Amino acid sequence: MSEPEDQDGQVGRRAVLKSGAAFAAAVATLASMPGGAMAATGKKPHILYILADDVGWQDLGFRGSDIRTPNIDRLASGGRLLDEFYSQPMCTPTRAAIMTGRYPLRYGLQMGVIPSGAGYGLATDEQTLPQVLKEAGYKTAIVGKWHLGHGDKAYWPKQRGFDYAYGPLIGEIDHFKHSSHGVRDWFRDNEPLVEEGYDTDLFGQDAIRLISGHNKATPLFLYLAFTAPHTPYQAPDAWMARYAHIADPSRRAYAAQISAMDDQIGKVIAALEKSGMRDDTLIIFHSDNGGTRSKMFAGEAAVGGDLPPNNGPFRDGKGTLYEGGVRVGAVVNWPGKVQPGKAEGLFHVVDMLPTLAAVAGASADGGKPLDGVNVWPAIAGKTISPRKDVVLNVELTQGSVRDGDWKLVWLTTLPGALQLFNLAKDPGETTDLATANPDKVKALQARVVELATAMQPPLFAMEALRATLANPPVFGGQPAAGHGEH
């Protein structure tokens, strides 16, 4: 299980909305800026979107870590660094935001993750990124973790715009057994699959197979969503041996997971080069949220000992709206098209759909109004990001927005728990400036209230009474293959 499915008081917090003590109406939709690389080059690029799972901010080589990530480091040194790039605080909301270009509060996926016993998923009337790209002539594939619905096949990736799908549908799995709570969670397209091997290696091998057999004349969108380094912390002995100097076993396995992922990323890039596709491939890399610092959000595999992720200068981690939970940074690399260096301004994961649509010469106008904006000119190094604010999340228990350098964190279950930070001066969120700036607090609080009034009820809270560990996962309305295995 990725995160606790029934945290203490979770269901009771539904009363926060009903009582009017929590927030209130929706944001005006941000308009997509026109234009992109497609217009400039006349050629649709291949797109490799690499998503890591729960990587700590400081746990990459190019950020000074002792964890070795030479392949990601090369992407960073030759690409664009989006250091003020934000995700959602947990994996399901972030993945939903990538797929839709819309804040998850619009369709009820803003709170928690989709638990193993749940029947809900990403609303089928939401347009997805692969659907947008397919209409522009792309071949689309997901290799890796989905976590946007498994209880009904209508939610599965093959039904949401992907021509090909391989990997798990839920969240946390045993990286060798490919099972969650004793139930196998491993599929190719819509069929259960039994395979041996370490999941990170299998993802890399499958991505290489796809690239090697792909006709490069057809643009490819490959969403490579690793399960590393999510709990349980597991890695092959050969990778563990490389970190024998790390005394803490959890940190040793965590580091090995990241390096094993980096190794597969390098092999996938080599496959692009061998196939003559690399110069025409736009690569994006980031984590789905910050590293896990609290056992509340670590899943049942994290028992005892300190949690190993390092979020560097940022406060707290996964599951929270502090910078350690939502500021993940991103690397964008495309030889000759993306100017190396640091991009200026704010970015949010919802920006990826309109940005990639613009780059691909696709239309993103066929669905509901987007929250994302086209930030391609800033990524390419030609201008500053047009984004002036970001909605970090709004749900029953907490809400946060950033406006310029100012950030409000509102913990709704604690009376008076309004915190205000100036991130330009205090990126670690150590000094609460709420008392000294009541007008700014009032303005940002009103923004959160406005959003909450119009948000969809969180499906996680509605499902919490029904989804418990006692209920085995059900895939597509059928009992899961391998139920009872351990």
Automatic annotation (TrEMBL):
Q: Give the GO molecular function terms.
A: metal ion binding; sulfuric ester hydrolase activity
Going by the UniProt record, its keywords in alphabetical order are: Calcium, Glycoprotein, Hydrolase, Metal-binding, Signal
The stretch of residues making up the signal peptide is 1-39
Q: Which Pfam families does this UniProt record tie to the protein?
A: Sulfatase
Among its keywords, does the record have Glycoprotein?
yes
Specify the Sulfatase N-terminal domain's residue ranges: 45-361
Q: Which domain of life is it from?
A: Bacteria
Into which family does the record put it?
Belongs to the sulfatase family.
User: What protein name is recorded for this chain?
Assistant: Arylsulfatase
